[in-house]
Structure prediction request, 219 residues.
Amino acid sequence: MKKIYLFIITVLFSTTLFGQIYVGVKGGYTMSNISFEPVEETKMLFSDGIDLGVTFKHFNAKYVGFQADLYTTNRGYRKPTDDTNLYTFVRVNQYIELPMFIQFRINLKVAYLHVNAGPYMSYLISAKEGDNTSGEYLIEKVKFNVLRDNRFDYGLMGGIGLSYDFRWGTIQAEARVGYGFADLYDHTYTNMPKQSIAVTENVNVAYYYTFGKGVKSEN
Prediction:
């Protein structure tokens, strides 16, 4: 067992030593919706606030690396409450989200073009909902029901963007789309839909500080 641990530590140390590590902070803006089955008329929810968090990248090959982010994000949906579309129900969910990507990048000389693809996991920490039937939105905090509300979400996420290495760090800008596999509401609960999965669009900007030798990551 000690030999196995020693081997793992050696591999991780070697990967770090001969690769390039990026550690940074990021901010973003999310637009989202929920896809229901049976189909319900819903509208996209524009983010109630900015996504904020930390991000990490590692490259020890020329074209392929790894990226992971950890941040808070608000997403949910809007739904008309009458046929006139004058009144709307709003649900806003705040998640802690962790996407993990394989990143493919190409050096365009002026910047890197990169493509991200991989799974994500989210945990719902709070939610609020309400409508504007009184003339203005009255939003209240949701009291979670463990039999109805699903706190965990997971799915696939992908994006495309550009990054540029300055002497003082790296700036990366990206656009993403995500598709969930877990339901927001448990379909076995009374009057809940058979499906309620998240669909998201996101734009974000990150700043990275770089550790390691870039020359090695180009070999």
